[in-house]
Amino acid sequence: MATVWRSQCAFARFFAGKTGLILNNTADLGSKVRPDSISVSKRLYSNYGNSPFVRRIQEQYEFEVVKNPPEWSYVERLLPFEGIPKVTPKESYPSGWIPRKEEASNLPYFLQRTKNEELSIYLDISCRGMRKISKVKKIEGDIWLLNDELKEYLKKRYNRYIESRVHELSKFIEFKGDYVNALKEWAHSKGF
Predict the structure, then answer these.
(1) How confident is the model at residue 171, as a pLDDT?
(2) Alpha carbon of residue 96 to chain centroid
(3) Residue ranges making up the domain that contains 134
(4) Across all residues in the chain, what is the average pLDDT?
(5) Most exposed among 16, 52, 164, 180, judged by the fewest C-beta atoms under 10 Å?
(6) What are phi and psi of 149, to 5 degrees?
(7) Residue 108: pLDDT above 50?
(8) What Rg, from alpha-carbon coordinates, does the chain have?
(9) How far does the signal peptide extend, from start to end residue (predicted)?
(10) Which CATH number do you get for residue 178?
(11) Does residue 18 lie in a domain region?
(12) What is the model's pLDDT at position 75?
């Protein structure tokens, strides 16, 4: 009987409007909470319209301008580098990174590296992992000759026909399939 009475009260509250709210959704014999009895804390400066105008910043905050503080060395550690530091030449590097060689500048085409001195050869995976496209980006010079040489290299290595698409204005070549490791090996062998 009590559950029927609760459902009837809920039905009556639904159609009666939002003027009366019953606490904890229990049958408390219609004790109502009026909107004026609810204490709502209004958040000051919660949006742009309620925030005050900022005037006289020098008076609002106390600060001191110091030209050469000793604490500045701690701040300099956190700032990003202005440029990539020069690499010290070695036989091999622990990460497997291979530096660019001078013989690459004599070829009719050139593969630029990224600002971190990495090759710009990527794998694009789409269609839920079904379509894999290898991209060689940042190509300068004769892009068509580079396309022919890469297709010939991949055809000999994988012993099958390789589909490619050349974007001459955007300076990149796409190969249908996952050939990123083979393309990086080729680029390192040429000195890029």
Answers:
(1) 95
(2) 25
(3) 102-190
(4) 80
(5) 52
(6) -65, -40
(7) yes
(8) 34
(9) none
(10) 3.30.780.10
(11) no
(12) 83
The pLDDT tens digits of the residues spanning 123-143 come to 999 999 999 999 999 999 999
Query: Are the C-beta atoms of 111 and 138 separated by less than 8 Å?
Result: yes
**Is 130 part of any domain?**
yes
Would 137 be classed as within a structural domain? yes
d(Cα 140, Cα 108) in Å, to the nearest integer?
9
Can you spell out the DSSP letters for the chain?
A: -HHHHHHHHHHHHHHH-SS-B-GGGS--TT--B-GGGS--PPPTT-STTTSPPP--HHHHS-----SS-TTHHHHHHHSPPSSPPPPPP-S--TT------GGGGGSSEEE-B-TTS-B-EEEEEETTTTEEEEEE--EEE-HHHHHHHHHHHHHHHHSS---EEEETTTTEEEEEB--HHHHHHHHHHHT-
CA torsion angle for 22, 28, 32, 35 (degrees, to 10)? -40
The amino acid occupying position 101 is K
